[in-house]
Design brief:
By secondary structure, the chain is of the alpha/beta class. It contains eight helices and 14 strands. It folds into two domains: 191 residues, P-loop containing nucleotide triphosphate hydrolases (Rossmann fold, 3-Layer(aba) Sandwich); 68 residues, no CATH class. Helix 5 runs parallel beside helix 6.
Length: 271
């Protein structure tokens, strides 16, 4: 495992009006590893990912990428660095084929016409590098693909552009058992190829099957970042639901101190 993070966040704060969603969040993503980002609904996972991908600008904190502090102001900035996000809705066009989807918005041209042979070659090479064998033809319409195949195309599209960090948002949601196994194998292969992978998932079986590290968010705070082999399933669940598991996690909250003397408000007591 690498000793130096490829992507490192420190002290990230993000508010929307009076509501602070992220509080002093830190996250480290290492090359060649899968980091599972877990947390309950409303924990801040989506907001954090949108800060990394440039959809939201952070209020404070630092982002270090490949050893250099960077500022990400837009998705274009993130893509230029080599950060790609595969969202849960996949952002694929059913009426286009696999090659057209993989190059959508980034088409290769030869003069004033599209360079179809080059795009087809690059798409095929990318799928082959990920050992994808379930796609019969690169010219299949996405509408004809299964859920697992669509997820595979979306992931291949993300790594086509020499990306170094790939963030996957619930990649196995709504997939069957066989398709889930296929996607998890692909996720593991991304890390084995040297990429830093962030896997967002509610499925603890998937998390423990492929992740090297687990980062647990609780109410907008990073409760813990640990190696997967150092924690149990129940400990991760406790971090997600309460922010703490034994000595691991956020410090216990202190009781509120309102100051002043205790006033007896029972009938006949002091007023």
């Amino acid at each position: 495992m690498a000793a130096t993070p490829l992507l490192e966040l420190n002290g990230i704060d993000k508010s929307f009006g009076p509501v602070q969603v992220l509080h002093d969040v830190g996250l480290s993503v290492y090359p060649g590893e899968v980091t599972a980002l877990v947390g309950d609904n409303g924990a801040g996972k989506s907001t954090l990912v949108k800060c990394i991908s440039g959809i939201y600008t952070i209020d404070s904190g630092t982002v270090t990428y490949d050893g250099n502090q960077v500022a990400i102001h837009s998705p274009r900035d993130a893509s230029a660095l080599g950060i790609e996000v595969v969202y849960q809705d996949l952002a694929l066009c059913d009426n286009l084929d696999i090659v057209q989807n993989m190059f959508l918005g980034r088409e290769k041209k030869r003069g004033i016409v599209l360079d179809e042979p080059t795009m087809e070659q690059m798409a095929g090479d990318t799928l082959a590098s990920l050992s994808v064998r379930t796609v019969k033809s690169l010219r299949q319409l996405v509408a004809s693909l299964s859920g697992g195949q669509r997820q595979t195309v979306a992931i291949a599209k993300a790594v086509l552009w020499n990306s170094k960090v790939v963030i996957l948002d619930e990649p196995t949601a709504a997939l069957g058992v066989a398709q889930t196994a296929q996607v998890l194998e692909l996720v593991r292969r991304l890390a084995d190829n040297g990429l830093g992978v962030v896997l967002i998932s509610h499925n603890m079986n998937d998390v423990f099957a492929v992740s090297d590290r687990i980062a647990a968010l609780y109410l907008g705070r990073m409760a813990a970042q640990v190696k997967t082999t150092d924690v149990t399933h129940s400990q991760v669940v406790e971090l997600i639901t309460g922010g703490r598991s034994g000595n691991l996690g956020l410090p216990p909250e202190k009781p509120a101190d309102f100051g002043g003397d205790v006033v007896d408000i029972t009938p006949g007591g002091d007023k």
